[in-house]
Amino acid sequence: MTKPPTILCVSGYFKGNRFIETCKREGCTVYLLTIEKLLKEPWPRHAIDEVWALPDFENDETLINTVAYLARNHEIDRVAPLDDYDVERVARLREYLRLPGMGETTARYFRDKLAMRSRAEFRGVPIPRFVHVLNNARIDRFMKEVPPPWMFKPRAEASSVGIKKLSSPDEVWRIVNELGDLQSRYLLEQMIPGDVYHIDSVVSEGEVVLAEASRYRRPLFDVTNAGGIFATAILPREDPDAIELQQLNKELILHLGFVRGVLHTEFIKGRDDGEFYFLETAARVGGAHIAEMVEAATGVNLWEEWAKIEISQGEFPYVPPVARKDYSGLIVSLSRQESPDTSAYTDPEIVWRLDKKHHVGFIVRASTPERVQELIDAYLPRIERDFSATLPAPSKPTS
């Protein structure tokens, strides 16, 4: 390709401004296809050549026909998703238009919880025991062999949306019967008590060029469903857990056939046996401002690197950035106040403050992980006292 490609960004949620701006800065012609209710959001219009919208993205045929119609008078060299829910849609578009990038088969490993578990299990990656909610005899056998509680998970939702913790066969059968023909869209999984970790990666031509391993203070499922404060921090890079997670991450990328892009992957460390188990992965930038946390520690913005890799698609070199080796941590909470006053939080390590109604949040950066943990330990009770609020768990994604 002799000139920067034309890229169509597809997003059913308002996110990815840094991705869009990076594409324009790299010389691309940039188009955005979104949904009508998002047209008034503050997209970086200065970096977008044209914007189109559909009422929604629910009908695949409508989406394909729309992009094919636009392609009559607009050359499109790349199509990129900006949200987890767009990954499979865009893979389908690439296949239909015969454009470079991840196709449908591989994309399923990064959207469908059943597909990623089945592949991981086949390749010998440690995972919690699970059963597809399809065959009643197998479901019954699973519940007899694996003690409760169990996690009832939708195959195609993101984050912890739609996940239920169940404690008895009666609860399981009640939900299965209510679902009717939709039961095959779910799986039932062993609940392993333990700490949940995430590793956020940049991958180019199958090689991990950057990866940071972090630990959640509480699993996101617990925060979403029981309330409380969300917090995570980058692990000491020489910590045995961080080293093991890096190796597991590399193996998983190989087994799932991921070639290029960014990944947000979660593992749980069993409290009883100290072993790591793969939970799930997504071919996107981690949500909840994790990208900002990684950038604070490394100087590398995951959205920007994702954009550069999507542009290159292996057709011309991608040059990975040189990362700093600082440490950072993230705290986010709902706030009782619409515009919380955080002026009493004055530590010089604060490098980012969340600006969102009824929310409070900080990112802290330090040269040592111990200082980051010290600040998080100090802030958690203060935020609980000064601001914290709870809401019912969402039944649908909110971002």
| Tally of structural domains | 3
Order of helices and strands: EHEEHEHHHEHEEHEEEHEHEEHHEEEH
Write out the strand line-up for the largest beta sheet, numbering strands in chain order: 13-12-9-10-11-14-16-15
Radius of gyration over all CA atoms, rounded = 21 Å
Name the shape in a single word.
Answer: globular
How far from one another are the termini? 35 Å
Under CATH, the topology of the largest domain can be stated as D-amino Acid Aminotransferase, Chain A, domain 1
List keywords for this structure.
399 residues; alpha+beta; Rossmann fold; Dna Ligase, domain 1; D-amino Acid Aminotransferase, Chain A, domain 1; eight-stranded antiparallel sheet; four-stranded parallel sheet; 12 helices
Q: Summed up, what is this model?
A:
The protein has 399 residues and is of the alpha+beta class.
Describe this structure in words.
The chain is α+β, with helices and mostly antiparallel strands. It folds into 3 domains: 6-108, Rossmann fold (3-Layer(aba) Sandwich), CATH 3.40.50.20; 129-190, Dna Ligase, domain 1 (2-Layer Sandwich), CATH 3.30.1490; 194-386, ATP-grasp fold, B domain (D-amino Acid Aminotransferase, Chain A, domain 1), CATH 3.30.470. The protein has helices spanning 17-25, 60-70, 87-97, 104-108, 113-122, 136-145, 169-179, 220-226, 240-256, 290-298, 302-312, 369-386; strands spanning 6-10, 29-35, 50-54, 78-81, 130-132, 150-154, 164-166, 186-190, 194-204, 207-216, 230-234, 261-270, 276-282, 327-334, 350-353, 359-366. The strands form 3 sheets. An 8-stranded antiparallel sheet has the order 13-12-9-10-11-14-16-15, with helices on both faces. Strands 3-2-1-4 form a 4-stranded parallel sheet. The protein has a 4-stranded antiparallel sheet with strand order 5-8-6-7, sandwiched between helices. Helix 1 (17-25) packs across helix 11. The longest helix has 18 residues, at 369-386. The radius of gyration is 21 Å and the shape is globular. The two termini are 35 Å apart.
